[in-house]
Design goal:
The complex is a heterodimer. Chain A is an all-alpha fold. Chain A has one domain. Chain B is an all-alpha fold. Chain B has a domain of about 60 residues. Chain B is about 70% helix and about 0% strand. In chain B, α2 packs across α3 and α3 packs across α4. Chain B is flat and about 60 Å long. Classes of the chains: A mainly alpha, B mainly alpha. The interface between A and B is large, with 46 and 32 residues.
Chain lengths: ~160, ~90
């Protein structure tokens, strides 16, 4: 069921904004409210927006089911993998080996209220990204499967 | 009769809920040792301002791993359930 030209145009305009906002929520998960799950859900709504505005047949070239599957599996593997790296370094599973190390995301944070820095948190941003990518792929593919009955002519 | 009975049950349950909620005192938990530990040491140990993220992804990392696995399993279940409906398309069936 294809929506009118106005709806499709607005969906086209909103799609990058929604995706960028979701990626912002994922990326700033260790500073602001939100995180991987919430940001991934926000990005997945962009997929829902496009599917509702267009028909299922028309979005075949825009949204790739295979890519979402890879995202979902890859996100979960990255999440477990980052935790496994800590085990490989001789610490415990899920140990935050990057915090206060001066490497990637390794800056220290003073105690008490402070403006915050993106380059902090150790493995937390990496795990946020992993979970965000996983939720993005997972929810988008659920939406794709559930709305795959929306045809061009209308049901 | 049935409507009156259900309405009565609803009123009783609502009154019970509000009486219970009025008895609570928010902001002063009985045991706050764990919360105090997180608030005191979270910024120093994990180097993150967001204590909630600290708890979710570091102190309680296993819980988040289970949560992600639950989502993964749910998606697999949905994919299995809706597989039959798209069998008509030739190469859609994965």
């Amino acid at each position: 069921m294809r929506m009118s030209k106005i709806v499709r145009f607005c969906a086209d305009m909103l799609y990058p904004a929604v995706v960028i906002f979701g990626l912002y929520v994922i990326m700033h998960g260790h500073l602001t409210p939100g995180g991987g799950f919430q940001g991934g859900a926000v990005v997945a709504t962009a997929a829902a927006l496009v599917i509702v505005a267009y028909s299922y047949e028309e979005i075949q070239g825009m949204l790739s089911k295979f890519l979402f599957q890879v995202q979902e599996s890859g996100g979960l593997l990255m999440f477990g993998g980052v935790a496994l790296i800590a085990l490989g370094l001789g610490t415990t599973y899920f140990f935050n080996f990057l915090a206060n190390s001066g490497l990637l995301f390794g800056m220290s944070v003073p105690f008490g209220p402070n403006p915050g820095d993106l380059n902090t948190g150790g493995v937390l941003p990496l795990m946020n990204i992993a979970v965000g990518v996983e939720v993005w792929g997972g929810l988008a593919i659920v939406i794709l499967y559930m709305l795959s009955g929306i045809t061009k002519e209308g049901v | 009769m049935k409507k009156v009975l259900s309405l009565l049950i609803l009123i009783i349950l609502t009154a019970f809920l509000f009486v219970m909620a009025a008895g609570f005192t928010f902001g002063t938990p009985l045991k706050s040792d764990m919360d105090d530990y997180f608030i005191k040491n979270g910024q120093e140990q994990i180097a993150t301002n967001n204590i909630v993220t600290t708890v979710v992804f570091d102190y309680r990392g296993f819980d988040t791993l289970g949560e992600s696995t639950v989502l993964f399993t749910a998606v697999i279940g949905v994919a299995l359930m809706f597989r039959k409906y798209i069998r008509g398309d030739s190469d859609e069936n994965e």
